[in-house]
Structure formats: C-alpha cells, structure tokens
C-alpha cells in the first residue's frame, strides 16, 4: 500500500496546477468583491469559500482516475489488492485536498479578510471536509472513468452525493464564524465523522467490483 | 390465486385507503384541518420508496455476487419505481404545502433533503444511460446504486432530525406519531402504508417482467 502511495505521489504534476487553480479563483473573487469596497459580508464569505473548495475538489480528484492509462491500471492490478488501491487513492486524495484546502484557506484569509471567530474549529472543519470530499469523490471518479462522457458524469454524480456533507460543513463553519461554543456544533461534527466513515467503508467494500473490469 | 393473494390485498387496501381516507372523520387541529388526510397519501409514498429502494439495493448486492441480467433488471426497475414514489411524494407534499404553509416550496431541511436524494437517484438514471456495454452498465450502476443508498438515506432519516423544521413531526409541530393521531386515523394509516408499499412492489414486478420479455424478444431476433 505504501508503494502504491508513492506511485501516486510521483505524478504530482496535478498538484501545482490545482494550487494555481485555487489561487486564481480566490483572486478573481477578491477582484470582484473589491469593486464594492473590499470584504464581503460573513455569510457570502462562507458560501464563497465552500463553493471554491467544492469545485477545486471535484477538479483535483477527477484527475486521479481519468488520467490513469489502461496499461498502468493493468500493472497495478497485477501488483496489489484492490482494497489497497482504493485506500491509497483515498489517502492520497485526502492529503491532496487537505493541502489544497489549507493553502486556499490561507490565501483566502489573507486577501478577503478574516471574519472567523473560532479559528481552530473552522480549520478542523475544513480538514474534515477535505477528508469527506476525498472519500466520496474517489469512488465517484472511479465510476465516472468507466463511462463515456466522464467529465460531465463526474459533476452529475459527485455534486448530489456531496451535498449532505456540504450542508453539515457549512453549518459548522457558520458556527465557527459566529464564534459559538463547541457544544453548538458537536452533534453536527459527530454526524460528519459518521458520514465520512460510512462513505469510506462503502467505497472500500465496492471498489473490488469496480476494479474487475 | 395462491401466489397472487398479495395483489388482491393491495387492491382492497388501496380502495379502503381511498374511501376511508377521504370519508372517515379526522381530529380538528389548528392550521392542519382537513389537510391532515394527506397523511394517507403523502407519508406512505416515502415508506414505499424506502422499502422498494432497499429491495433495489438487495438485488444490486445479489447482482455483484452473481451477475445475471434478471437481477440487474429487477434492481433497475425497483430503483425506477422508488424514484417515481419519491417524485409523487414530493408532489403531494408540495400541493399540501401550498394550502397549509401558503407556498409550494420552502427552504426546509426535510424538503431539501428529499429533493437532493431525488437528484442522487436522478444521477443514477443518467449513469445508466451513459454506457454502451450492457455488462459494464449493469455492474457499475449496481455499485453506484449501493453507494447512492448509503448517502441518500441519511438525508431522509438523520440530517432533518438534527435541525428544526417546519415539517410536521419536527420542532414542536404536530405529527402522526404523537398525541394527535387517534385510533380512527391509525386504522386508515397503517393499511395505507402497507397498500402503497405493496403497490410499489407490484409495479416493480410488472416493469421487470416487461423488460425481461423485451430482452428475450431481442435475443430471439439476434439468434
């Protein structure tokens, strides 16, 4: 599994592209808000941040399976168990999204102001979100890669599946923005963790069947 | 007749639901008034949808263990009937909301959750239509079906319970499970749930039979 992870890591050309993607999106947002004198109000700030994260996550993870050549897939197939592949992919995507999200958050805070009152909660929430996006989108991108019009399919399949997670994430980050105490968002966070675990477990169980083709 | 008793039962139960649901007296509750009768039509849709989707997932799991076109068709047709029940559920709820809340749609966790779950299953239909190879289509849509079920059910049964909602049964609004469902209503509601659920299974069975026959005709033409 470690070996597989390293294989993933070697083709990290996508990473720089994605960083640039997030960076330029944030900058475009900054420019469009600066027309009306700088910082957007807190709800807009929150919504914008999660939309940026959502789109960059879909783009980043979609590359994972779509860029794989048939030959390399076959090569993995002879080397490792499918469970190891999906775990490695999820781990890699989680790290990738975590890096992207934190870098994006840093830039976002820098140029669009910082209305967050409970920063540790907000950052923890972003990290949970990155993990959740990774585990949902990895299987979806595996499914989409098999179909003919995979890029459209990635969005069509991915967005509805991510909405439950996104709703919870936005709620918790709103709590963090308003500086509510931890108890207010505890149950949402627990549900989020449970949802992540369900999705990851289902991916783990289903991926071997997907892999056989 | 011995095998088909449940179909007769469906007809009897639904006739009973239609007649008794509209005629039997209901408790007078503020705001709800006579619209409480929607309980016999709207709520059983979601029960039926859940059961038929569970059946669909069951067929999908069996397909992954033992791939046969029959199981694929059964899983697909069950999911389609589940989507139909969900859409009818949304429609009956929307009409009810128009006369109770004064609007077709509000920004409510239960409503949004149901709508998103329907989107998830809409994606299932799109996914199915984007494959040309039949075996691959069957396997991958079975995988997605299981995955979709695991993410859609929290939308119905977990997330709305975490927040307040306008919907009956949440935030102190009257619902069927609590104080306001008297015995007369129970006597109609439970048969209604069973009747609509059986109807969903009946529809799925007929639909899969038609698809199977089409498949057989097609294979004969090829041979």
From TrEMBL, chain A:
Superkingdom of the source species: Bacteria
Location within or outside the cell: Membrane
Family: Belongs to the CcmB/CycW/HelB family.
Transmembrane segments: 12-35, 47-66, 86-110, 122-145, 152-170, 190-211
Coiled-coil segments on the chain, per record: none
InterPro entries according to UniProt: Cyt_c_biogenesis_CcmB (IPR003544)
Name this protein carries in UniProt: Heme exporter protein CcmB
Membrane topology designation: Multi-pass membrane protein
Organism: Hymenobacter duratus
Keywords: Membrane, Transmembrane, Transmembrane helix
Keyword Transmembrane helix part of the UniProt annotation: yes
Pfam entry (one): CcmB
From TrEMBL, chain B:
Compartment(s) of residence: Membrane
This protein's UniProt keywords: Cytochrome c-type biogenesis, Membrane, Transmembrane, Transmembrane helix
All residue ranges annotated as the Cytochrome c assembly protein domain in the record: 8-153
Main location: membrane
Residue spans crossing the bilayer: 39-61, 81-99, 111-127, 139-159, 188-207
Similarity remark: Belongs to the CcmC/CycZ/HelC family.
Protein name per UniProt: Heme exporter protein C
């Amino acid at each position: 599994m470690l070996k597989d992870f390293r294989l993933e890591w070697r083709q990290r050309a996508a990473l720089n592209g994605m960083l640039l993607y997030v960076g330029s999106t944030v900058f475009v947002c900054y420019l469009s808000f600066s027309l009306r004198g700088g910082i957007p109000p807190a709800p807009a700030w929150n919504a914008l941040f999660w939309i940026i994260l959502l789109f960059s996550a879909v783009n980043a993870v979609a590359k994972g399976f779509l860029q794989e050549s048939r030959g390399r897939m076959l090569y993995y197939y002879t080397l490792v168990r499918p469970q190891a592949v999906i775990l490695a992919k999820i781990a890699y995507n989680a790290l990738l999204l975590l890096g992207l999200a934190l870098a994006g958050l840093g830039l976002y805070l820098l140029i669009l102001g910082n209305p967050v009152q409970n920063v540790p909660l907000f950052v923890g929430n972003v990290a949970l979100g990155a993990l959740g996006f990774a585990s949902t989108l990895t299987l979806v991108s595996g499914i989409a890669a098999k179909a003919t019009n995979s890029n459209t399919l990635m969005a069509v399949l991915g967005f509805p599946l991510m909405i439950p997670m996104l709703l919870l994430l936005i709620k918790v980050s709103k709590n963090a923005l308003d500086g509510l105490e931890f108890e207010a968002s505890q149950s949402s966070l627990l549900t989020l963790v449970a949802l992540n675990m369900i999705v990851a477990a289902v991916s783990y169980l289903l991926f071997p069947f997907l892999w056989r083709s | 007749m011995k095998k088909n008793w449940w179909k007769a039962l469906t007809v009897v139960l639904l006739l009973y639901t239609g007649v008794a649901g509209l005629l039997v007296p209901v408790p007078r509750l503020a705001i709800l008034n006579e619209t409480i009768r929607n309980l016999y039509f709207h709520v059983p849709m979601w029960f039926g949808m859940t059961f038929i989707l569970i059946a669909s997932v069951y067929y999908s799991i069996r397909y992954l263990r033992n791939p046969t076109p029959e199981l694929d068709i059964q899983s697909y047709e069950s999911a389609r009937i589940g989507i139909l029940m969900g859409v009818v559920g949304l429609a009956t709820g929307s009409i009810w909301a128009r006369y109770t809340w004064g609007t077709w749609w509000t920004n409510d966790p239960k409503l949004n959750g149901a709508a998103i779950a329907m989107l998830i299953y809409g994606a299932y239909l799109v996914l199915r239509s984007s494959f040309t190879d039949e075996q691959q289509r069957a396997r991958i849509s079975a995988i997605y079906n299981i995955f979709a079920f695991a993410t859609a059910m929290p939308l119905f049964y977990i997330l709305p319970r975490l927040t307040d909602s306008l919907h009956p049964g949440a935030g102190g609004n009257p619902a069927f499970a609590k104080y306001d469902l008297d015995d007369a209503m129970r006597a109609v509601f439970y048969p209604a749930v069973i009747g609509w659920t059986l109807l969903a299974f009946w529809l799925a069975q007929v639909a899969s039979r038609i698809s199977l026959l089409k498949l057989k005709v097609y294979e004969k033409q090829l041979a």
